[in-house]
Amino acid sequence: MIDDFYVTGKADYEIEFEKERVELWTALHREISQFTRLKGITYLEKGCLHLSCSDFGETYTGGHDWKNYRAKFSVTPMVGEHHGVNVRVQGAIRSYAVGLLPDHRVGILKNENGYRILAETDFDWHCGKEYEITVCVEENHILADIDGEVTLKTQDEKNPYLTGGIGLSVQKGSHMSCRKITVS
Predict the structure, then answer these.
(1) pTM as predicted
(2) Which branch of life, at top level (predicted)?
C-alpha cells in the first residue's frame, strides 16, 4: 500500500507505445497506461497508440506543473485532416497544439475552450506517413519543427499557458497513431 507518491524535477523520459498496455478499469472502461482521455477512441496496435473520434478526441499525460520543456512526437495521420500534438495541457479546454491541418497546412493553435490558430504555414503532409514533430515551449514562446522541413514559432502575449502536460488530439473524424513521445 502506498499512501503518498510524489514526483519532482524536470521531465526527461520517453514513452514507447510498444511497451504500454491497455488497462481494464471496468467491463466497458479501458485506458492506455500512463494516459488519461477526454474523449475519443484510444487503443494500442502494432506498437502505436491510436486516437480517433467523430467530432474531437484528446488524450493526455505528464504533469500539470511542467514549465519549459521539449516534446518530440512520432505520429502518423491515418484518416482525416485534423491531427495534433499538444503541449502545456491544463485540461480539456486549455492547451497548445501543433496541428496538421486541411489544405496541406500546419499550425500552432491555442485551445481556449476551442482552438484558434496562432501561426500557420504550408506543409505538404500526407496520411500514412510518419512525421516527427518537435515542440519547444519556453515561457510564452512556442517553437515547432516538423521533420526538419518546416519551422513555426510564435509568442503568446495574451494570457499564455506557462505550465502543463502533453497529449494528442484529433478533430472532425480524424484518426492518428503515435509510436513514441520523448520529453526533456
Answers:
(1) 0.94
(2) Bacteria
**pLDDT band per the 50, 70, 90 thresholds, residue 89:** very high
Instruction: Tell me yes or no: is domain 13-183 CATH 2.60.40.1930.
Output: no
| Enclosing H/E stretch for 122 | strand 115-122
Mean per-residue pLDDT, 155-159:
95
Average pLDDT score over the chain = 96
**Cα(177)–Cα(52) distance, integer angstroms:** 9
Closest to 96 in 3D by CA, of 8, 21, 159: 159
Residue 134's alpha-carbon distances to 2, 55, 129, 156, in angstroms, are 36, 25, 16, 18
162 closest CA partner among 91, 68, 85, 71: 68
**Dihedral in degrees, nearest 10, Cα atoms 103, 105, 108, 114:** 0
| C-alpha–C-alpha distance, residues 134 and 41, integer Å | 24
